[in-house]
Amino acid sequence: VAIIGAGHAGLVTARHLKDCSIEFDLYERRNSIGGVWRDREESLLDKEELSEEEMIALSPIYDNLRTNTPMDAMQFDDLEYNCEMDIFAPWTEINKYLKTYFAKFSLQKHILFQSEVIKVSRKNGIWKLCSRHLPTGKVIEKDYNALVICTGHEEVPFIPQLEGASLFQGLQIHSKRYRHPSHYLNQNVLIIGLGPSGIDIALQISPTVKTVYVSHRKKETLKATFPENFVEKPEVKTFTDNSVIFVDESSAKIDTVIYCTGYTFKCDYLDESCGVTIGDQYVRNLYKGMICIEHPTLLFCGLYKLFFGIVLREMQAKFAAKLLTGKVSLPSKEKMYKYTQSW
Fold first, then answer.
1. Do 298 and 304 form a contact (C-beta atoms < 8 A)?
2. Distances (CA, A) of 70 to 87, 90, 141, 320
3. Environment class of 23 (CB within 10 Å of its CB; exposed 0-12, middle 13-18, buried 19+)
4. How does 100-113 read in b/e, with b if 16+ C-beta sit within 10 Å?
5. How many whole angstroms separate alpha carbon 259 and alpha carbon 207?
6. Would you write out the chain's pLDDT as a tens digit for each of its 343 residues?
7. Which of 43, 41, 39, 55 is nearest to 94 (CA)?
8. Single pTM value for the model
9. Which of these, 188, 220, 263, 276, has the minimum number of CB atoms within 10 Å of its CB?
10. Phi, psi torsion values for 147, nearest 5 degrees
11. By three-state DSSP, how is residue 251 classified?
């Protein structure tokens, strides 16, 4: 079995495959485990423009990031967090936890660090995986009976195409490049997006900036109490060279725009023979959002971002191990397609 990605989903999948005596390789394109919670490499932040590959390599972790999920819901069955930690822990504690998990279950001998998967195809019932060892450029091909994709969904930033954005002369960044409030001292900052990162970054920078505008598409205003310089706004209509006009025709002078607009899926190494269709925000032809209907030995673990996602990833990992050892069976292809179409 090939497992792609050594974050939460990849590590817990590896642990449960090992528990079932399933042979596997764990591919990780970086030189450390942890996925989103990996060690940070900040050299790319010095560059004004980043290529798509560089944006993928950049860590999304900012300096004061804490979990927005209670610690009890972010631990695996066989390794408890230190009970003295805060209920919402800093990212460094998650990083340490995953390294401890990696060591406890002796996953080191299975991992292929700095190995980028560049192509996966299926031929005669076998998965053919082609990878590149990044330090040397050496390309390696290997056959597998099954494939588990654990690369998640927080690699390639999604930035909406907004009218006039190319005219704006201020700074525009995705939240993946955000690091610290001090970078926006006395500025007027526009946050686009009302997800967890949008709210968190807006609250972090509010003591530092003049005004933080938060643009979102929700019809109702937020019910919580926010700082005086926190201003809710509707969706953006257009930009000028130094300001933004919203759909209600109000406007504001802006120095920096931070897009907290999420990420797109990226599995372009899967060719047509793999049996799935991948778009910016979806992967089609998956049963239960996990199992390729055409080829059920292709599995996705941790694909979708849900509350208590760590618990779900471990459940998926356990199910994957049982499926690959023949301890559970699937409905017919027709029933799986019918179930998927009902979503």
1. no
2. 5, 11, 41, 26
3. exposed
4. ebbeebebeebbbb
5. 20
6. 999 999 999 999 999 999 999 999 999 999 999 999 998 877 777 777 888 788 888 889 999 999 888 888 889 998 988 756 678 889 999 999 999 999 999 999 999 999 999 999 999 999 999 999 999 999 999 999 999 999 987 888 999 999 999 999 999 999 999 999 999 999 999 999 999 999 999 999 999 999 999 999 988 888 889 999 999 999 999 999 999 999 999 999 999 999 999 998 888 999 999 999 988 778 899 999 999 999 999 999 998 766 567 888 999 999 999 999 999 999 999 999 999 987 6
7. 39
8. 0.92
9. 220
10. -140, 130
11. strand
- Which of 230, 259, 288 marks a domain boundary? 259
Q: How many structural domains does the chain have?
A: 2
131 and 35 co-located in one domain: yes
Q: How far apart are CA 205 and CA 216, in angstroms?
A: 18
Q: In this structure, are 53 and 164 located in the same domain?
A: no
Q: Are residues 64 and 200 in the same domain?
A: no
Tokens read off for 215: 């643009």
What CATH number is given to the structural domain containing 174?
3.50.50.60
Residue 171 bridge partners (DSSP): 256
Same domain membership, residue 8 and residue 117: yes
Q: Write the DSSP assignment of 257-281 as a string of letters.
A: EEE---EE---TTB-GGG--EE-SS
Q: What are phi and psi of 182, to 5 degrees?
A: -60, -20
Residue with tokens 């968190």: 200
- The amino acid present at 61, given as its one-letter code, is I
